[in-house]
C-alpha cells in the first residue's frame, strides 16, 4: 500500500567523483529526454524513481574521494560548499565547471539539492554556458543560501544512493525523512536494498571520507551488477557494522513510517571509522526484480540475477492449481504488474499451490519464487517444493517468523542430484483464512 505523500518522479543518472572516468552513464539532460511508459506511470506515486549509473573506475583514488573527500580540487576548495549556488557558489574559475566529469558531478549534485522547476546557468572559463536543473529538492536553500552540515549530509546520502560501480542504469525507489523525499513503498520495488549516509564534502578525524551504508533485507535479492550484494569493486561507501544488516545493528533506528506494518526505511544510524557519528540524513533504496542490459533496457523473461522467468502470472494463473481460489491479480506484483493471488477461507491445515507437472528441471537446478503475505496473515510456515519424475518430492519448510509479512520474500528449492524435476510449488500451513500472493517463479 503506497502512502499519499506527493512527490515527483524523475529520470536521473547520478555521478559522484570529480574526475573519475565515467562509463555507461548519461547526463541528466539526455536521460530526461527519454521517458518510458513504465516510468511515466510512477509520476503519480509517492516515490522517486531514479536511474543509478555512476561508474567509479578509479574508486576512491586520484582526485575522487580519497584523502580529501570533495575538498582540495573539489567542492570545498572552490567555496562551493559555503557559498550560494546561484551567485558565488559556481563561477567560471570553479574546478568543477572546467571539466566534463566535474560538470556531470554538478548536474547530479544540483538535481539532488534543488527542486524541480529550479535551475542554475553558469559559464566555464571559456565562456560556454551550462544549465544545471533541480529535481529532488533535498536542500532548496542552497540555491541562494549556504550549504550547512545538514545540507551536505542530505546531498551526500543522495549521491551515494545512486552509485553503480558497473555503470549500469537501473531504476530505484528512494525514501527518507526529508520533505523532498518522504516515506512509502511501492509493490513495483519490493526489495529493500540498503540505506546510505555520510558526508562526502569533508574528511573525518582520521583523514577519511564519511561514506557509509547498511544492508536492507533485500540486499541479496535479485542482485544488480554494480550495486550492494553484487561483489562491488571500487564502491565509495563502507559498512562499519558487525553483520551488515541495518535491522540487526543496534545503532540503526527504523522509520516511524510503515507500509503494511513494515518500516519504509531507516531514519538514524551511528557509524564511523573515526569518531562514531550519529547520522540523521539517510536515504533508503528499494529495487526491482528485473534484469537490465548494459544500456538500461529490460531483458524480457529474465530476473536481475540472470534466472529465467517460468511463471509470471501476468495474464493468467499459468495453470496453477490449489484448494484456495486462484486468480491473476493486479493487487500487487513482484515483477510486472500482476501476481498469482490465493484466497483461502477454510480452517487450519496446509494449502498447496502447485504449478503444472510439465517441467523438465535438471538435477542441481535451483528454482526460486516470491511469496507475499498480508500483515495479519494466519500462515505460520511456507514450504517450497519440487516434485520429481520418479514420483518423490523434496521440500524446504520455513517458519513465517523468519520472514517479513507485508513484504515480498524469496524462497527456493534445488532439484536433487540424479533426479529431474517436473513440478514446483509452495505449501502454506495456516491456522485459518488467508490471502497470499506468488510471483516471479524462476529457475
Give a verbal description of the structure.
Strand 11 and strand 12 (about 275-280) form a beta hairpin. Helix content is about 10%, strand content about 30%. The model is unreliable at about 1-50 and about 55-75 (pLDDT under 50). The strands form 6 sheets. The protein has a 6-stranded mixed sheet with strand order 1-2-5-13-6-7. Helix 4 (about 100-115) packs across helix 5 (about 150-160). It folds into 2 domains: about 15-285, no CATH class; about 310-440, Jelly Rolls (Sandwich), CATH 2.60.120. With about 450 residues, the protein is mainly beta. It has helices spanning about 30, 35-40, 85-90, 100-115, 150-160, and strands at about 15, 50, 120-125, 130-135, 170-175, 190-200, 210-215, 250-255, 260, 260-265, 265-270, 275-280, 285, 310, 320, 325-330, 340-345, 350-355, 365-375, 380-390, 395-400, 410-415, 420-430, 435-440. It is elongated and about 75 Å long.
Amino acid at each position: 500500500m503506497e502512502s499519499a505523500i506527493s512527490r515527483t518522479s524523475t529520470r536521473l543518472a547520478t555521478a559522484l567523483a570529480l574526475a573519475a572516468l565515467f562509463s555507461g552513464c548519461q547526463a541528466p539532460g539526455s536521460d530526461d529526454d527519454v521517458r518510458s511508459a513504465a516510468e511515466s506511470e510512477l509520476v503519480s506515486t509517492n516515490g522517486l524513481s531514479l536511474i543509478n549509473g555512476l561508474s567509479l573506475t578509479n574508486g576512491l583514488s586520484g582526485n575522487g574521494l580519497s584523502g580529501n573527500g570533495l575538498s582540495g580540487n573539489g567542492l570545498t576548495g572552490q567555496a562551493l560548499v559555503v557559498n550560494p549556488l546561484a551567485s558565488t557558489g559556481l563561477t567560471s574559475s570553479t574546478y568543477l565547471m572546467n571539466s566534463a566529469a566535474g560538470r556531470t558531478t554538478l548536474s547530479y549534485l544540483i538535481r539532488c539539492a534543488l527542486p524541480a522547476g529550479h535551475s542554475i546557468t553558469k559559464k566555464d572559463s571559456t565562456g560556454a554556458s551550462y544549465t544545471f536543473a533541480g529535481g529532488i529538492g533535498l536542500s532548496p536553500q542552497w540555491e541562494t543560501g549556504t550549504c550547512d552540515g545538514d545540507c551536505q549530509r542530505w546531498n551526500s546520502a543522495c549521491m551515494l544512493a545512486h552509485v553503480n560501480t558497473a555503470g549500469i542504469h537501473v531504476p530505484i525507489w528512494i525514501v527518507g525523512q526529508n520533505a523532498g523525499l518522504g516515506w512509502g513503498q511501492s509493490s513495483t520495488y519490493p526489495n529493500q536494498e540498503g540505506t546510505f549516509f555520510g558526508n562526502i564534502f569533508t574528511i573525518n578525524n582520521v583523514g577519511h571520507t564519511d561514506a557509509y551504508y547498511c544492508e536492507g533485507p533485500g540486499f541479496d535479492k535479485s542482485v544488480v551488477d554494480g550495486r550492494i550484494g553484487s561483489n562491488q569493486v571500487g564502491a565509495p561507501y563502507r559498512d562499519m557494522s558487525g553483520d551488515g544488516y541495518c535491522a540487526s545493528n543496534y545503532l540503526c533506528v527504523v522509520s516511524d513510517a510503515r507500509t503494511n506494518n513494515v518500516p519504509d526505511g531507516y531514519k538514524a544510524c551511528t557509524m564511523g571509522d573515526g569518531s562514531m557519528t550519529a547520522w540523521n540524513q539517510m536515504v533508503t533504496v528499494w529495487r526491482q526484480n528485473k534484469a537490465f542490459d548494459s544500456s538500461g533496457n529490460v531483458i524480457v523473461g529474465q530476473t536481475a540475477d540472470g534466472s529465467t522467468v517460468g511463471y509470471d502470472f501476468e495474464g493468467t494463473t499459468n495453470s496453477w492449481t490449489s484448494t484456495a481460489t486462484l486468480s491473476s491479480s493486479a493487487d500487487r506484483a513482484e515483477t510486472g504488474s500482476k501476481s498469482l493471488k490465493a484466497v483461502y477461507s477454510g480452517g487450519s491445515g496446509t494449502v498447496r499451490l502447485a504449478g503444472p507437472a510439465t517441467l523438465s528441471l535438471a538435477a542441481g537446478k535451483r528454482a526460486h519464487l516470491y511469496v507475499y503475505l498480508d500483515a495479519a496473515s494466519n500462515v505460520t510456515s511456507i514450504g517450497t517444493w519440487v516434485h520429481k519424475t520418479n514420483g518423490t518430492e523434496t521440500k524446504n519448510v520455513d517458519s513465517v517468523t523468519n520472514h517479513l509479512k507485508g513484504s515480498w520474500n524469496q524462497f527456493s528449492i534445488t532439484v536433487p542430484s540424479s533426479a529431474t524435476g517436473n513440478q514446483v510449488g509452495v505449501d502454506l500451513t495456516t491456522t485459518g483464512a488467508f490471502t497470499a500472493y506468488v510471483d516471479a517463479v524462476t529457475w
